[in-house]
Amino acid sequence: MKKPNMMLLVFSAMSFVLAMTAFVFSGILDKVAVSLGISVADSGLLNTMYSYGAAFGVPITLILFRKVERSRMLKLMLFATILTTFALIYAQNFVQLLIVRLLMGISANSYGVLAISTILALSPKDRQGRSLAFYIMGSSLALVIGIPLTRALSAVLDWRSIFWILNAMMLLSLVYFLKYLPKADHEATKLDLKNELQFFKDGKTLLLLAYTLTMFMGYHAFYTYATPYLLLLFPSIEPLMSLILVGLGLASFTGNLIGGHVSDAIGYAKSMMLGAVLQTAAMLLILVFQPSKWLSVLFIIGWLMSAWFTGLQLNTGIAQVTENKSSFMLSINGSLIQLGGAFGASLAAVVINLTGIQSIVFVTLLTSLALILIQVVSMRKYP
């Protein structure tokens, strides 16, 4: 690979940009609602449609374009994301915005799956974890500085101007990829649907997918409501909430970075077990010390760090189990992340209505225990 460090840097920058396109509305929903003349609840559908596009559209897209060489497909999906961003900027009404967000969810996340597959293919096996961690670092930085910065910029720029900036960065990355991204072996990267379906008969792969779905159910059950959880239990914490959110962002960044090094050192399977144990321990501590304001904040930060430590291992595991020959399985893994998040947030909403927000800890604690069980079975049956 020509200029490998620069290539990885561009991929990481694109991870930041695409995370911003996914999350940017979350930070400015109230302002988007005002500009469109709709309710905040309705404006939240812009994120929902993006998630549906990611969950259902990506596997279908990879099947439909299965004969296209991987690096070419990556550039096509990036170009499609640029076009959908232009369409978003010029959309005339809310219905058009929803349709465009659905399409953006498909193209941006198809690019994301292909980017992960490409990075892993271009990295030596003993550095795959660190390379993937560096790539994911872009999305964690979006949480640390991107979303707060967007909120600040929204005082002087409208949301369409923010997307203009993101689109300019995507265009620069596309130009770089067109010039420097090497072509992959076409036979090694094209999608053979018959062979892909064989992976669903592989117990190790199925357990990895079960781990993904379960983990992100628990993750989103708690993280979606982490801010109101803290504010309801400790109203006096509100003036410091911005600093706490930065701390959570730094926790995700640090957990991801450590996860890459640990994965390369001990392998993804042991790292997944370690991550499940750490998440369980953190949730137990959150439960036990629920009456304590600062210990609750500390252990939530620790839990988020362990979750991001673990999340990295899932794509690494899928890539290594399939010998990096299945972008389709990576897309299925990505779809389960989205579906797990939707299921988890919905389950948490039911629990909150029935028993109160403090009970969401139990949902994530149970899913963390389930992760340990899944990984024990996986490591014993498929050593």
TrEMBL record:
<dbReference type="InterPro" id="IPR020846">
    <property type="entry name" value="MFS_dom"/>
</dbReference>
<keyword id="KW-0812">Transmembrane</keyword>
<feature type="transmembrane region" description="Helical">
    <location>
        <begin position="98"/>
        <end position="120"/>
    </location>
</feature>
<feature type="transmembrane region" description="Helical">
    <location>
        <begin position="240"/>
        <end position="259"/>
    </location>
</feature>
<feature type="transmembrane region" description="Helical">
    <location>
        <begin position="271"/>
        <end position="289"/>
    </location>
</feature>
<feature type="transmembrane region" description="Helical">
    <location>
        <begin position="162"/>
        <end position="181"/>
    </location>
</feature>
<feature type="transmembrane region" description="Helical">
    <location>
        <begin position="357"/>
        <end position="377"/>
    </location>
</feature>
<dbReference type="GO" id="GO:0005886">
    <property type="term" value="C:plasma membrane"/>
</dbReference>
<dbReference type="Pfam" id="PF07690">
    <property type="entry name" value="MFS_1"/>
</dbReference>
<dbReference type="InterPro" id="IPR036259">
    <property type="entry name" value="MFS_trans_sf"/>
</dbReference>
<feature type="domain" description="Major facilitator superfamily (MFS) profile">
    <location>
        <begin position="7"/>
        <end position="382"/>
    </location>
</feature>
<feature type="transmembrane region" description="Helical">
    <location>
        <begin position="132"/>
        <end position="150"/>
    </location>
</feature>
<keyword id="KW-0472">Membrane</keyword>
<feature type="transmembrane region" description="Helical">
    <location>
        <begin position="50"/>
        <end position="66"/>
    </location>
</feature>
<dbReference type="InterPro" id="IPR011701">
    <property type="entry name" value="MFS"/>
</dbReference>
<feature type="transmembrane region" description="Helical">
    <location>
        <begin position="206"/>
        <end position="225"/>
    </location>
</feature>
<keyword id="KW-1003">Cell membrane</keyword>
<dbReference type="InterPro" id="IPR050189">
    <property type="entry name" value="MFS_Efflux_Transporters"/>
</dbReference>
<feature type="transmembrane region" description="Helical">
    <location>
        <begin position="328"/>
        <end position="351"/>
    </location>
</feature>
<keyword id="KW-0813">Transport</keyword>
<feature type="transmembrane region" description="Helical">
    <location>
        <begin position="295"/>
        <end position="316"/>
    </location>
</feature>
<feature type="transmembrane region" description="Helical">
    <location>
        <begin position="73"/>
        <end position="92"/>
    </location>
</feature>
<keyword id="KW-1133">Transmembrane helix</keyword>
<protein>
    <submittedName>
        <fullName>MFS transporter, DHA1 family, purine base/nucleoside efflux pump</fullName>
    </submittedName>
</protein>
<dbReference type="GO" id="GO:0022857">
    <property type="term" value="F:transmembrane transporter activity"/>
</dbReference>
